[in-house]
Amino acid sequence: MGVVVMAVLTVIRLSEAALIWADCPLGGSVSVQLDNALQALLDEGVSPLVIDLVRVPTLDAGVVEVLAQAADDAGDIDLALHLRLPGGRRYVVRDGAELRFAIQQAYPKAA
Question: What Gene3D superfamilies does the entry give (predicted)?
Fold first, then answer.
């Protein structure tokens, strides 16, 4: 098991699976860290790749764009992002449109 803590994000690796977790508002420079983490994990073919935003109160448009691009990238290599969102919402997304729909359910102002 590997755990990497980046300023706001925590990345946990368990064998072929990975979890990205945060518990604060996401925006600004966090989108660069998130993009780097997601791309590295997708490049490794990690599956499942879980993004846990249950404790994240808000997302900005930059973070939504990073997540949407990662969903598109995952779908291109026959993988998916597994989202855990506030309110007990769970989604498996394979493209940016599915990602934006899921995010809009929990964060109507972000998507």
Answer: STAS domain
Of the candidates 3, 7, 42, 11, the one whose C-alpha atom is nearest the C-alpha of residue 25 is 7
Token duo for residue 91: 């989604």
The pLDDT value recorded for residue 1 is: 55
Is the per-residue pLDDT at 51 higher than 90? yes
Instruction: Place 103 in a pLDDT band, splitting at 50, 70 and 90.
Output: very high
pLDDT of residue 47: 96
The DSSP secondary structure of the chain, one letter per residue, reads -EEEEETTEEEEEETTEEEEE--S-B-TTHHHHHHHHHHHHHHTT-SSEEEE-TT---B-HHHHHHHHHHHHHHHHTT--EEEEEGGGEEEEESSHHHHHHHHHHH-TTT-
Contact between residue 60 and residue 110 where contact means Cβ atoms under 8 Å apart: yes
Angle (nearest 5°) at CA 9 between 21 and 12: 55
Contact 11, 20 (CB under 8 A): yes
From 42, 43, 63, 65, select the one nearest 53 (Cα to Cα).
Answer: 63
